[in-house]
Amino acid sequence: MSSHSDNRDEIKAQRHKARQQKVKQQVDAHVAAATRETGVLMVITGEGKGKSTAGFGTVARAVGHGQSAAVVQFIKGNWACGERNLLESAGVPFAVMATGFTWETQDKAADTAAALATWQQAEAFLADERISLVLLDELTYMLSYHYLPLERVLNAISQRPAHQHVIVTGRNCHRSLLALADTVSEINCVRHAFNQGIKAQQGFDY
Ligand code: ATP
Ligand code: MG
After folding, report:
1. Alpha carbon 97 to chain centroid distance?
2. Is the pLDDT of residue 102 over 70?
3. Any domain includes 202
4. Pocket lining for ligand 1, CB < 6 angstroms
5. Which residue range is the domain that position 11 belongs to?
6. Less packed terminus of the chain by CB within 10 Å, N or C?
7. How many CB atoms lie within 10 A of CB 17?
8. Exposure of 92 by Cβ count < 10 A (0-12 exposed, 13-18 middle, 19+ buried)?
9. Does residue 12 share a domain with residue 78?
C-alpha cells in the first residue's frame, strides 16, 4: 500500500475515534442523568408479533434475578401456553380469564363477568408489595371491548406499590393508558407467517 493511502486510513481512523468519543460522552451523560429507581409501566402494543413474547421475556428476566412476578392473561382461555408451564413451575402465579377467544364467544354478559373476575385477581397482584413485576397480557382488549371500567383499571395501576413494574400488552391500547405509561413500544407487522398459510405452532407461537 502507498504511504498516501496509509495516511488516508490513519485520518479515517482518527475521525472514527473522535466521533465515537463524542457518542460515548453523550451516552455517559444520559446514563448519569437517569438516577431514579422506580416501578415502570410499560405498554407493548402494535400489529406485529412479539408483544406477549416480550412481556414473558421480562418476567423470565425478573424471576432469573430471584424477584417475584405475577401474570394475568386476558382472553387466552384454556389454550396451551408454554410460558405458563415453565413459569408456574418456577413459582409465578397465573390468573387466567376463563373464557376462550372473545370474538368467538358472542356472550357479552359472560365475557364481562369473566373479565371482572380476572381483574380482581389483577388488583390483588397490583396491591401486593412483594411482587416486583405484573404482566397484564392482552389487557388492552378488555378496555376496547368495554369489559372493564377504564377508571378502575387506571386507578389500580397508578396506586400500585412504587417499586412495582407493570407490563401491558395488546393492540389498540387506550390513549389514557398510553398516557400513563413510562415506556411504550409499538411492534409493527412487516410480515407474518400466518398470511403465507403457516399455522400457529406449539413452542413458537404459544
Ligand atoms: P406473541 O404471543 O407471539 O408474542 P403477540 O402477543 O404479539 O404474539 P397477539 O395478537 O397476542 O400477538 O397474537 C397471538 C397469536 O396471533 C400468536 O400466535 C401470534 O403468532 C399471532 N399473531 C401475532 N401477530 C400477528 C399478525 N400480525 N398476523 C397474524 N397473526 C399474528
Ligand atoms: Mg399477545
Report:
1. 18
2. no
3. no
4. 47-53, 138, 169, 189, 192, 194, 200, 205-206
5. 1-35
6. N
7. 10
8. buried
9. no
